[in-house]
Amino acid sequence: MSATRMRFLSPRNLRLVHRAPRDFLGACSGRQPGGPSCSTSLTSPHSVSSHMCRALSSLTSSRRGLPKEKMSENGISRPKVLTLDTMNPTVKMVEYAVRGPIVQRAVELERELSEGIEKPFAEVIKANIGDAHAMGQQPITFFRQVLALCSYPELLNDNTFPEDAKNRARRILQSCGGSSLGAYSPSQGIDSVRQDVANYIERRDGGVPCDPENIYLTTGASDGIVTMLKLLVCGQGIDRTGVMISIPQYPLYSAALAELGAVQINYYLDEENCWSMDINELQRAVNEARQHCHPRALCIINPGNPTGQVQSRQCIEDVIRFAAKERLFLMADEVYQDNVYAEGCQFHSFKKVLFEMGPEYSETVELASFHSTSKCYMGECGFRGGYMEVINMDDDVKFQLTKLVSVRLCAPVPGQALMDLVVNPPQPGEPSYNSFIKERTATLSALAEKAKLTEQILNTVPGIRCNPVQGAMYSFPRITIPQKAIQEALEKGQQPDMFYCMKMLEETGICLVPGSGFGQREGTYHFRMTILPPIDKLKILLNKVKEFHQKFTQQYS
Amino acid sequence: QFKVHIVKGVKCSNFYNKSVCYLCVQLSLSVRAAQIREELRQGVKKPYTELIDVTWGDPQGAGLKPLTFARQVLAACLYPKLLNNERLPADVRQRAEGLLHECHGGSVGSYTDLPGIPQVARQISEFISRRDGGVPSDPDHILISPGSQWALQVHEKYTAMYKFKQLYCGGGGVRSGVLTPQPSYSLSVMSVVGLGGVPVPYQLWEEQGWEVQVEELNRALEAAEGECDPVALYVINPGNPSGHVQRRKSIQDVIKFASEKRLFLLADEVYQDCIYKENIEFLSYKRVLAEMGPPFCDTVELASFHSASKGLLGEYVCGFRGGYVELVNMDPAVMKHVFTIFSKDNAPTPGQIALSVMASPPQPGDPSYPLYRTKQQMQTLIKDNVRKVHEVLNSLPGVSSHPVEGGAFAFPRIDLPPKAIQKAKDLGMEPDIFYCLRLLEDAGLFFTPGCEYGQKDGTYHVRYAKKRFHVEYKDLNTKIKQYYFSLAGFAS
Predict the structure, then answer these.
(1) Top-confidence range, A254-258, A491-495, B23-27, B34-38
(2) What chain A residue is nearest to B28 in terms of C-alpha separation?
């Protein structure tokens, strides 16, 4: 391997999975708590009495029929082994806004409603998470037929199933161990599925070659992203790995980085410019970060979550050049690749652009790209299907990666089967082709319509400004919160947009995620709302948001 | 050609290295096994016509038929049109309808709230309570995850990381240790290591059928002093790879030890349905803990792991990836963080459906019961086969295997001829890796070398998945015999 192709992700740096034994035992005393992200985690108040009073297990309390408070008085005074003070501090740093306090409250409200408690609304609408089926989107019939056939192959004798679904099911079963969906697959994923994924990528990228050996089937895209971050994180103090993520970002990234004790490097997307990426801003972020950590990776979500922007080809080229210059490993989260709505916008994969930039880049820049079955037109979140493609990765590191994914045995096989169907849907001439196209088009055009509608209605509200939803499944409008409301929120110890969203939930039953859960420029406030509810419901929802915002503004000005 | 250098690089010189190298060996041998399969397919002449892989505890991969009820329920959930299909029994359709009703949007394609589909969590807690002779179980203390390995790994994050002592070394920390059985399932060891914890090995007592010994636990704890701060004790019952099933007394001793030494108990109980010996029953740590009464039942913190991938019913759904962990006596404040972490990774819905069937199988009177019953009876057959294989192995000179009590694997000890050991050393390989490699090349048998699980110096073992033998055991016995005697060539 020539010097110019030397990879910065070498096995030497893979501390996590490949640490010399002496280092393993010896380095601990000198370890710093991983840079700024961990430094505040050790300050939770310690109170022995609170430990004593903590509820003991349901096991014992119900066994003896005693109320929990009584339990602490029977002479047991030992604190637990695992308390807030003794638990892994990085875990405490983990926050996951899309399922945070607002959502927990929404679940409570749903329960209260079902118990007949009066509320100013009849139902809770959860527009907090990109969960299409929960919002009534119908699955693609063909996919579900094949999966049903795979799970219960006796149905292959049922003549209500179309022939192409049966053929596909036979083909998938043949490549499963023991011809069963229930068997473990190889850790990297079923061979024939990886082959199909590779063919799909080649087609998508206009013939750029794809090697199935570079494909790893994952448990949703999240699993792949976290696995790659694990490989990348190493070093102590100023050498600690820094990972660049966009602000706003999808909280999976901040959560994973906090858990791994890596340094999060924020780069801001340009809200005035439809949330585009700005190379000057990337440069600023990386320069500042080099003062206190070792930036080694750059994460991009395209189409954007929560911001919905679709990157131009030019922008992707610039980002690749930047990554090459700064020696950064690129992580391209491309799970919304089919969700592009705005005219003039088109999805370009990082891989394709990279290969069209010529060998100077295509042979050197390291890239991992992620896709899943959860979004696009299928929206099958529950299956946890996904893949990642790694490009230009050092062979030895790839061996380590294979080892790392082996620890969790294999990705769920039904998810692998579904991924196979997504990358290899019915072809022209097959019995299911027409209905497949019809269903896919219906879903995608409804999403496009809803994206437009969301932008339009929100922009009629004074104090709300929404960028065009070019792609993905969310709007991320900026909201003006009156000073008085900000004051009240801060007095309550809440972020102003959390205060706003919580109030909206209590008054309207609409569940949104505050912008602070994704990150935003200081002094600006946003919320994320999915565009997924059925169009009639979405209209009602948007008008309720409008009313609420007006009322809220009035109340606090 | 087989890349010997990979195997050569694997020096199982200590416990840590062993866990790290586990998959290197496994991967290298797997790569070679795949090559051999391909060669056989292309018609390359070998002393055998088929390769038999006994490294995995995955009976479905070995051709066992899946549990019809589970597959029917899943199919109906996946394709709800089948709810009206008379070909599916009424109880199947009813189960599927109930599950779909609790999925958001009525679809298995949506995310589920924590701890999982509510009906599944309820069924699991009822299952636990039934299993444990009525000891109550709270569905709110159950978390459903994509497989037990995964849950264990996540759980270790709370216990097996840095315990910071702020004043110590200017903010530095002491690593947390996890007492880990030796031999043990290497993936677990690896995940402790991967998470930055220190595995503290305790040796299981081979002469006593791989029993856990309190003296040995004490020794391990003392040995860890100065190197790490042990916070958790990991037990596998029924054992993997040892196949040992702990009795009540032994579990009580371990619980007392954990209580005294203030250790969090991590009980890996995924093989609880695999009991092969007559007159012994599986006892869960949760049950024994509850029945010990105060002060133990109120204080000892326990996480118990189970999976739909193993056991009598669940064995047909490994690939679906469904597991759960039940938390006992955990600090509610910590539990909140556990939930946050779990909320990032939704358990796959098909795996949750598998758990539902495992926890709540068809009952007498249900249309699916008779078929289910025959499946249960098949287990008797499997038990017989497991015993037969054990007898054959034990009859071989130089092989000693403990009576098979439970679990998916057996871990017989192999006395290797000195010449074979020398030959291995010349090649720079661990002797049992060399043995397994020869077994693979010469006999077409794919075993896992014991050094990957940890074994006393100078002893050699192999691990095999017992149920694999169910299908091909006759053929296999002959092969093992043949091969064993061909190995004797090294002795001369």
Answers:
(1) A491-495
(2) A399
